[in-house]
Amino acid sequence: MFALGIPLTAEPLRLRGKVIWIVLPEEASRANPAGMGIEFQYSSEAERLETEAAVERLLTSEFGEPLATKLLGRKPHP
């Protein structure tokens, strides 16, 4: 489990996930920067939908609907 601090929110978003890849700094390149990929794990479909909705609301409020649409590849749900 990890907590993701989000600006302007009272509590961090608590998520479960599994690291599925890592690029160490000494292995990093411009095309493949250092970092890790996390596969999120949800206890139910309802939890997944709730988390996605929270992220969509945050994207829309912070960046506006046009940029949120571009980042999501679709219009955010109301």
Shape: globular
End-to-end separation = 28 Å
What's the story with the biggest beta sheet? 3 strands, antiparallel
Rounded Rg: 15 Å
Please provide the ordered H/E string of secondary-structure elements. EEEHH
* β-sheet strand percentage: 25-35%
Low-pLDDT stretches are none
General description of the model:
The chain is an alpha+beta fold and 78 residues long. The protein has helices spanning 45-63, 65-72; strands at residues 2-4, 13-23, 35-41. The protein has a three-stranded antiparallel sheet with strand order 1-2-3, with no helix packed on it. Helix 1 (45-63) packs across helix 2.
Q: Which properties best describe this structure?
A:
alpha+beta; 27% strand; three-stranded antiparallel beta sheet; single chain; 78 residues
Write a compact overview of the structure shown.
Helices cover 35% and strands 27% of the residues. It has helices at 45-63, 65-72; strands spanning 2-4, 13-23, 35-41. A hairpin with an 8-residue loop joins strand 1 (2-4) and strand 2 (13-23).
